[in-house]
Amino acid sequence: RIIEELMLLAGVSQQEIVPVPIDLDLTIGEALSNLSSMIQQTGAQITVLDRSAWPQALGYAPWIEQVWVNYLSNALKYGGQPPHIELGVDLQTANQMRCWVRDNGAGLTPDERDRLFIPFTRLDQVRARGHGLGLSIVKRIVEKLGGEVGVESEAGHGSTFYFTLPV
Description:
The protein is an alpha+beta fold. The chain is 40% helix and 24% strand. It has six helices and seven strands. It has a five-stranded mixed β-sheet with strand order 2-4-5-7-6. The chain has a two-stranded antiparallel ribbon with strand order 1-3.
């Protein structure tokens, strides 16, 4: 798994793609399908808000699916017991959308938020296995597509992870 993640991280840097219109509904569907056993194991409740009103994004569908998978798998691993997860999209400007995943986990301190998107950084060594590459892959993908990543979180109140994309 770490080799696959490292190859994806390196590949995003080297691969040149031309962003094309993508259907976010399809990428969400694929991501949820890929995580179906994890969703079932955790007993997660996932709500996709206003799915039919989502605009088309400009991007590269396999990469966007990977972003959703990373954000969702983290929400499943670090969310509440059981996880309650919401997904949504907000149109920020005529040219930019903000996609987000909100969980009911423990939330993050300011120091933890600052370290999240750094390669090989893991905040919780007990609850989940991994190598700390997922969010750095997300960051590299989204920035390559002309967007930004971030998190809004407060200790004790869950987290909202987001990424922006051109419309």
